[in-house]
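User: I'm curious whether this sequence folds into something compact or stays loose and floppy. Could you predict its structure so I can see for myself?
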Amino acid sequence: MNIDKLQFTQFGNRAILILWEDKMDVNILSEILYVKKNIEEIKLKEIVEVNNTYNSLIINYVFAINNIYDEISVLKDLLKKANIDKIYKGSKYILPVCYHEKFSLDLEEVCAQKKLEVEEFISTHTTPIYTLYFMGFLPGFLYLGGLPKSLQISRKKTPRLRVEKGSVGIGEKQTGIYPQISAGGWQIIGNCPLTLFDASLKKPTPFSAGDQIKFKAVSLEEHQDILNKIEWGKYQLEKVKEWE
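Assistant: Here's the prediction. I'll summarize afterward.
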């Protein structure tokens, strides 16, 4: 990692922002997540939390930063010692998605623009292994990189005022999943019946940046069956050790 290429900026009086190159790349994400892990382990008492996006870290401190230059120097020394010579490996999950027309509000239009049959779109969308880069703009909203180039499309010019919980959308190079009802401008192509975020739990979401996710197409009946199992407490998130 070339520390000289990173940008360090004070962000208010209790935070420092570190910026990497402005692109979505698994190697950059690996650097960010290893740096995040090192900072959390070594400076735990001084820090409230460390959050990442696809190309940045924001470090939130307990107290106001007295000397920004000294603190940046400390961070640079820490980064020089960080072990980041390998790709960060998170957990691996398989998420069910129903592409039925009941949920896939934009799928027909997307397929028309991309000159694809619906079945071809679904096959292409469920083939890759996606990387979870970060979560936001809603708590538990998954930003997944790795959308095949043949499916990449801009977001809607006019966002919807209401997007249903579990809606799976695509926009530019990403797939996103709405954890709750919200306004939004992603192209909606299906629905994931799982609860992605539950504030009542000690760990509100099972997912973390760096996790890998694969989609599995399910029918409308299977989608409802999963919802029923979740309600009865009989559904278990599908987690795998290695991809087949």
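Summary: Residues 140 and 197 are 5 Å apart (CA to CA). The chain has a mean pLDDT of 93.
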